[in-house]
Amino acid sequence: MLQENLQQLKNRALDEIKKAGDLNQLRDLEIRYLGRKGELTKILRTVGELPAKERGRAGDLANQVKQALASEIGRVKKSFGEKGEGGVGEKEWIDVTASKMKDGFGHLNPVSTVQYELEDVFSSMGFMVLDGPELESDYYNFEALNIPSWHPARDMQDTFYVEGENLLMRTQTSAMQVRAMEKYGAPLRAIVPGRCFRNEATDARHEHTFYQLEGFMIDKNISFANLKAVLEVTAQKLYGKDTRVRLRPKYFPFVEPGVNGEVTCFLCKGKGCRLCKNTGWLEIFGAGMIHPNVLRAGGINPEKWSGFAFGFGLTRLAMLKYGIDDVRLFCGGDIRFLGQF
User: For 67-76, what is each residue's pLDDT tens digit?
Assistant: First the structure.
């Protein structure tokens, strides 16, 4: 019975292939008979149901039919003048003097441009570029970062929680710190760019979706001097060799001590202007030495290893670089906005 079905399919398919009027019709027939859900494929799937003695003969016949159809399709393609995918056939003609249609080019979001620039900078210093889940557990987003449920620092961030699960939309890319420690151990140096979410009332300066870049380095005898050196190199590669870095004390639960990092304004070179609010400095990152509790959560002995962490607001960097005064434009989907970059 199976052999008869195969022979009937072969005869019918060969007849239709020979009568194909153009390449589109021929491709439809190829999909109909030889495609992943084609008629021949459906028959082949029933071979396994046959008795063992008949399977080999039926399989050979099915392959012969498949080869015959493929061969005939190839022959007819050539008769249409097709020389392969994207080729020019003998029956085709191209007017080489005709005006070329203008190619359309896409545009990178300004945040993506800043992210790729920072990735290049840190990759040149030996940092891995990691990615992490946007739907994160409470443990990695808070508990493992020295922010237990009773910690007052949780009041700093309004969080989107998933109902019925111990999950949330990550509020910071710092959530990847302990995941990376668990996977790679020490020594370790990595950056984690990505999207974050907070329950913000949106306005020109606040948005529920924004982008950060977290970075961290763990090794023996890592000190604050190493942190400052890495950040100075980064700032100078971004804004020029004359750029200076200023660190001021700041509290973050997952580092101790913590600092806010500022660089000399790249617009006025530290003289004071509208961009830097006449201070000569721009705040662009937070940083500090990784808290021993965070190292322990990642399975790393703080008596043997030390490290630093830092975080850049990619959305803020893009706003500063391009003079954008409304954060909502980045996720607004307005093609006129993206077309400027």
Answer: 888 888 888 8
pLDDT of residue 256: 92
Amino acid making up residue 93 = W
Q: Note the helical H segments in the chain.
A: 2-18, 23-34, 39-44, 52-79, 110-123, 138-141, 176-184, 224-239, 292-297, 314-322, 335-338
Contact 139, 170 (CB under 8 A): no
Query: Which residues of the chain are modeled with pLDDT < 50?
Result: 83-88
Quickly list H helices, 142-223. 176-184
| Dist. CA 146–CA 144, nearest whole Å | 6
Residue 204 token pair: 């020109």
Buried b vs exposed e over 82-105: b needs ≥16 C-beta within 10 Å?
beeeeeeeeeeeeeeeeeeeeeee
**Which string of b and e fits 226-240 if b means at least 16 CB within 10 Å?**
bbbebbeebbbbbbe
What pLDDT score does 85 carry?
Answer: 44
